Amino acid sequence: MSQIAQQTVSNEATPADIRLQDDVLSELEWVPNIEEEQIKVTARDGVVTLCGGARHYAEKTAAEQAAKSVHGCKAVTNDIKVDILGPARRSDADVAEAAVNSLRWDIQVPPDKVKVSVWDGWVTLEGIVDWQYQKEAAERCVHYLMGVKFLSNNIAIKPMAKGVDVKSKIEQAFRRNAGLDARRITVATFNGGDILAGTVASWAERDAAVAAAW
Description:
Layout: E1 5-7, H1 15-29, E2 39-44, E3 47-54, H2 57-68, E4 75-78, E5 81-82, H3 92-105, E6 114-119, E7 122-129, H4 132-143, E8 150-153, E9 156-157, H5 163-176, E10 185-190, E11 193-198, H6 203-213
Parallel strand pairs: 1-2, 3-4, 3-5, 7-8, 7-9
Antiparallel strand pairs: 2-3, 6-7, 10-11
Helix pairs in contact: 3-4
């Protein structure tokens, strides 16, 4: 893997910032679907910024996930630009057709519930489904398609349970999860939704809390 990442060290960077930059660069080098494109990494106070170019949307998101997995990363600003060249380029009509077909063939996506629109490679998903896994499945259908430059998942989830029941079940899920310290996470119900608050040790633990709640 050559020239996949660059590092810029600010004069104001602390030793912790520099260590986080180095760790993110090392992590990027081991992501197999990031090749040849240059990615510039900066870090400040735990916030990692990614710049540069990617050949497709999946490569951009893979870089973001790699950065989030590094210890000490509190947030990621993903400014990587997707520039699709050569045989991977597709018209908006081709992308839309591929997306509709992919959604139609996925068993986890309810039929006729998700609408697709495409503008200059930017795919938008809309509709209403019953479960979070269905929303995630719809996004996964489109994520890796050729020609996709960006993806907005605006699918809404129809509430299926009373807020007080959901809150209790989320708290129970946290206590069952070996990777979470349930004492450091609180659950509040507001306006039909649930809010998670507290402090975790890493972005991975944050994602685990969100997954357990869903």
